[in-house]
Design a protein that fits this description.
The complex is a heterodimer of chains A (about 230) and B (about 650).
Chain A: E1 10-12, E2 19-21, H1 41-44, H2 55-69, H3 79-100, H4 102-112, H5 123-127, H6 137-156, H7 161-194, H8 197-229
Antiparallel strand pairs in A: 1-2
Helix pairs in contact in A: 2-3, 3-4, 4-8, 6-7, 7-8
Chain B: E1 6-11, E2 15-22, E3 25-28, E4 38-39, E5 41-44, E6 56-58, H1 60-68, E7 73-75, H2 85-92, E8 98-99, E9 111-113, E10 116-118, H3 120-139, E11 145-150, H4 156-168, E12 172-178, H5 179-188, E13 195-202, E14 207-215, E15 218-227, H6 232-251, H7 259-275, E16 281-287, E17 293-299, H8 300-312, H9 315-325, E18 334-338, H10 345-355, H11 373-386, E19 396-398, E20 405-408, E21 414-418, E22 426-432, E23 442-448, E24 458-466, E25 478-484, E26 490-496, E27 504-509, H12 515-520, H13 530-553, H14 566-582, H15 588-601, H16 603-616, H17 623-628
Parallel strand pairs in B: 1-11, 11-12, 13-18, 15-19
Antiparallel strand pairs in B: 1-2, 2-3, 2-4, 5-6, 5-7, 8-9, 9-10, 13-14, 14-15, 16-17, 20-21, 20-23, 22-25, 23-24, 24-27, 25-26
Helix pairs in contact in B: 3-4, 5-11, 6-7, 13-15, 14-15
Classes of the chains: A mainly alpha (about 230), B alpha+beta (about 650).
């Protein structure tokens, strides 16, 4: 009898009928590919949910799993195996894409733990004045004015060098603020990963607001870049 | 049951090729004429005397018909694949073919060819069938599975149309592979490379740039970008348009009203373009219908200035691909050039500038023939999929989706659910609900593209989630799973979570054929049958024998005949008589043997004819003989069809 993890639901392998836990991509008994497992993105890579992860190892594991799961390996397999290879590989790719990016990884893990996180590129946030971080209110107001002026000037075909320089300076400043947020986020990773319940809750709260701030800043930077590059 | 071979096909805008893995190296399979490139030109033969359906020719012979019967010929059909009527309409301004006049909005466009009408996938299917037959002739066994390449920047509809074409041609398309990635596979085969490479692929009608990371046999695409309407065609059209304008203003002749004259001029423009890759200057010398001559010297610098706007359009996608991959030009270790248009020196200069190559003491890679490299890579991918080879067992291609996938949200904005450059297969799950009490349907509009408004993106499909149990508004929770498969094609499934019912989905692709339509367009319904295959092989071999026999019949009229020794002439006549006798029987092997015998006997004669043809050609082209030569250049058939049996 196979040892089944407590957290996972035992299911029977479609091919050999031996029970295994539902977090596995291949049957440990007959090695056949299994339908997409039910666990989270971390479990796809066989790691416990945490924020500070070794990207080199993650990539290595991604390549190893890709070699086994990819539809190219099942081009002439039975229809059900083909379908599962497709679904499993999609899951693997989605998981890798999310986990390799520090911001996406943080947002994903916090969501898993019940945090409410806005969408990265949702257009509404930018226009909603209530979302402006309080310490940036004045600067953002000025910046929006300048952006509007710049767009008008562009439309008229005028080049306003002074405005351009000022916007470039603002972009550098907001880029710097973004870097600060990223560093602050990283600083919270250890606290979360350590696993102490009270500290973890505090870290989660801090990271949620940092992510909000980050999203606002990155939309702003994107606006400036687009306006400058137009 | 033993699995058949999987071939790799490059279905190009200008030329198409089929290749396979011979041992541990990919090779291109030649056609009956001994040449590897099959021009992507399809011609409708004249209506037969009995009034039946006219037959269809593909390749060099179809190209000859371009000047004689331009209204029965279509080329560059790849530019029309998976496109709407509106898009095709503007495209067609540049080409001699026309849409059928009974087309309704929302339909897949059909092209009027003589008295018949064809959708772009059907035209492509004829090209694919020709390649399939070339491969079958080469192997002496049926070929039913293939890998087909598509431009990396092809959208969902264009990919689906290509897959449909494969099915119509009797091919199971095991995978669509992106052209630049295929090229990387062909280059990566003989090296154990670790590094980052950029593939710059400027073909006949499309431009792609892909950036890949190579590591331990894994080819991981980091980003891709491009333009599905940018290529050598645009340069040809530009040169042709300039010449047409000059002829009009200087000689008062408007050639635009004469399709075959335009085609003759276009042919001269292509020749000029090709020679300008090696010569400092090219020359138009064309006799006009009114007896005037249009003579024009085109120095290379004038040509380069003229085409600069076209070439510059490749710079934006390259920069975007670098940004998306998070790389600087200096971080690109190698650049690979693909596509015939990369032979143009100005293109190489542009690539050099974009990736700072010369400054770093590097040169772009062009060791493999840029016309063949994509097909060779397709053959490598075919070998990977067949899964039985030591050479490729460690290789794996991880490609990305070129365009973001989104759904139309309130106010016509796009909610992006899968970002561009995501490794495929990729998926996204979205939840929908109802807005009205008792509502049982929810409509969803899926788009592809990077713009903020759905109207500016490419509409992929609209679908209806049906059979939602009637509940208060906002209560149903319908989970819709969007999955982009390894071919880059979208699949959708849905489930109502509260009732656990699988919601029915009716996907109406915005552009494309239904399954039933594709089914009805399958070219040879019995193509798979073994018996049928044997029959066809016999018929094809007889046709081939006829072709070579009739050429030999006319041989004594050729000046080259006199240069043969008496015993050479006698040997040809003996081989001819033997083939004529064997042709009556049903013995395929004997027929092939006799064909080969006659081919060998005439080889020296063929060479003599070629020499004579080369010395009389080249200079002093007039409109008339420029058109005669159509098809007699690089890709022209051997004057005596050469037989190559394995």
């Amino acid at each position: 009898m196979l040892k089944v993890l407590d957290s996972a639901v035992p299911v029977a392998c479609w091919s050999c009928s031996v029970a295994h836990n539902d977090a596995t991509l291949f049957c440990p008994h007959c090695s056949k590919i299994q339908p997409p497992p039910g666990g989270d993105y971390f479990s796809v890579f066989g790691i416990v949910p945490r924020l500070d992860i070794d990207l080199g190892e993650l990539e290595h594991e991604f390549h190893k799993l890709s070699r086994k799961l990819h539809p190219d390996r099942f081009a002439r397999a039975k229809e059900n195996e083909k379908q599962w290879s497709l679904a499993d590989t999609a899951l693997l790719n989605d998981a890798y894409r999310t986990l390799k990016d520090p911001i996406h990884r943080t947002a994903y893990l916090l969501k898993l733990n019940g945090a409410e996180i806005g969408e990265e590129h949702s257009g509404k946030d930018r226009k909603d004045p209530s979302r402006v971080p309080a310490d940036l209110l004045e600067e953002v107001f000025d910046l929006n004015m300048q952006l509007e002026e710049m767009r008008m000037a562009r439309k008229m075909g005028e080049a306003d060098l002074e405005l351009q320089t000022s916007l470039e300076k603002a972009k550098r400043k907001f880029d710097g603020l973004l870097d600060d947020v990223d560093q602050d986020l990283r600083a919270q990773w250890q606290a979360w990963d350590a696993g102490d319940t009270a500290k973890r809750a505090a870290a989660q709260k801090t990271m949620v607001s940092l992510l909000d701030r980050r999203r606002y800043l990155s939309n702003l930077v994107r606006d400036v870049t687009e306006t400058l590059g137009a | 049951m033993a699995e058949g071979r999987v071939v790799g096909i490059d279905l190009g805008t200008t030329n198409s090729l089929v290749a396979y893995m011979q041992g541990d190296a990919p090779v291109v399979i030649p056609g009956v004429d001994g040449l590897s490139l099959v021009p992507s030109v399809v011609a409708l033969d004249p209506v037969p005397a009995d009034g039946g359906r006219p037959s269809v020719t593909v390749g060099n012979s179809a190209r000859k018909a371009l000047v004689e019967t331009p209204e029965r010929v279509i080329y560059s059909v790849k530019r029309l694949m998976g496109r709407s009527i509106d898009e095709v309409q503007s495209e067609l301004d540049l080409f001699p073919f026309r849409l059928a006049d009974d087309i309704e909005a929302g339909e897949v466009p059909r092209i009027q060819l003589g008295e018949l009408r064809f959708t772009p996938p059907e035209i492509s299917a004829y090209i694919l069938r020709q390649l399939k037959r070339n491969a079958e002739r080469f192997f002496g066994e049926p070929v039913t599975q293939a890998v087909i390449t598509v431009p990396a920047y092809f959208n969902d509809a264009q990919r689906q149309a290509t897959k449909d074409a494969g099915r119509m041609a009797g091919l199971e398309v095991l995978r669509l592979v992106n052209e630049p990635t295929a090229a990387a596979l062909a280059y990566g085969l003989d090296r154990t490379n670790v590094g980052t490479i950029a593939v710059y692929d400027l073909g006949g009608g499309t431009f792609d740039i892909s950036i890949l990371k190579l590591r331990d046999g894994i080819f991981e695409v980091q980003s891709t970008n491009g333009d599905t309407h940018l290529g050598g065609d645009d340069i040809d059209n530009l040169l042709t348009a300039v010449a047409l304008d000059e002829i009009h203003s200087e000689h008062g002749v408007d050639l635009r009203a004469h399709p075959s004259a335009v085609q003759g001029l276009r042919k001269a423009a292509i020749d000029a373009k090709i020679s300008l890759s090696t010569e400092a200057s090219a020359r138009f010398d064309i006799e006009l219908p009114n007896g005037d001559r249009y003579q024009r010297e085109i120095p290379r610098d004038v040509f380069e200035q003229l085409i600069k706007p076209v070439l510059d359009r490749t710079a934006g996608p390259c920069k975007q691909a670098l940004t998306d991959a998070g790389l600087t030009p200096e971080q690109i270790d190698e650049v690979v050039l693909v596509g015939g248009s990369t032979r143009i020196p100005a293109v190489r200069q542009l690539v050099d500038d974009l990736f700072h190559l010369a400054a770093r003491g590097k040169k772009p890679h062009n060791e493999l023939n840029p016309d063949e490299v994509v097909a060779l890579g397709a053959a490598v991918q075919a070998d990977i999929l067949a899964g039985a080879s030591k050479t490729t067992e460690e290789m794996l291609l991880l490609d990305v989706t070129p365009l973001s996938l989104g759904i139309e949200a309130l106010g016509g904005t796009v909610a992006r659910i899968i970002q561009r450059n995501s490794t495929i297969p990729a998926s996204a799950t979205e939840h929908f609900t109802t807005g009205v009490d008792g509502q049982t349907n929810v409509a969803i509009h899926v788009v592809q593209g990077e713009r903020e408004l759905a109207a500016d993106c490419r509409s992929l499909a609209r679908f209806d989630l049906k059979g939602i149990p009637p509940m208060s508004a906002g209560l149903p929770r319908i989970e819709v799973k969007f999955l982009i498969d390894a071919d880059g094609i979208l699949q959708v499934s849905a489930r109502e979570q509260r009732s656990g019912l699988a919601a029915q989905i009716e996907v109406k692709a915005t552009y494309g054929l239904t399954d039933e339509q594709v089914e009805s367009m399958i070219l040879d319904s019995f193509d798979h049958a073994e018996e049928d295959f044997a029959k066809r092989q016999l018929i094809e071999s007889r046709n081939e024998a006829d072709t070579i026999l009739s050429a030999v019949e006319r041989a004594p009229e050729s000046p080259a005949w006199k240069h043969l020794r008496g015993e050479e002439q006698a040997a040809i006549e003996a081989a001819r008589d033997r083939l004529a006798a064997v042709k009556q029987g049903d013995d395929l092997a004997a027929l092939r043997d006799a064909t080969l015998g006659l081919d060998q006997a005439t080889r020296r004669f063929a060479e003599l004819m070629m020499d004579a043809a080369v010395t009389t050609a080249i200079r002093g082209k007039t409109m008339d003989n420029a058109s005669d030569e159509l098809g007699e250049e690089v890709t022209a058939p051997h004057p005596m069809a050469r037989a190559e049996f394995k």
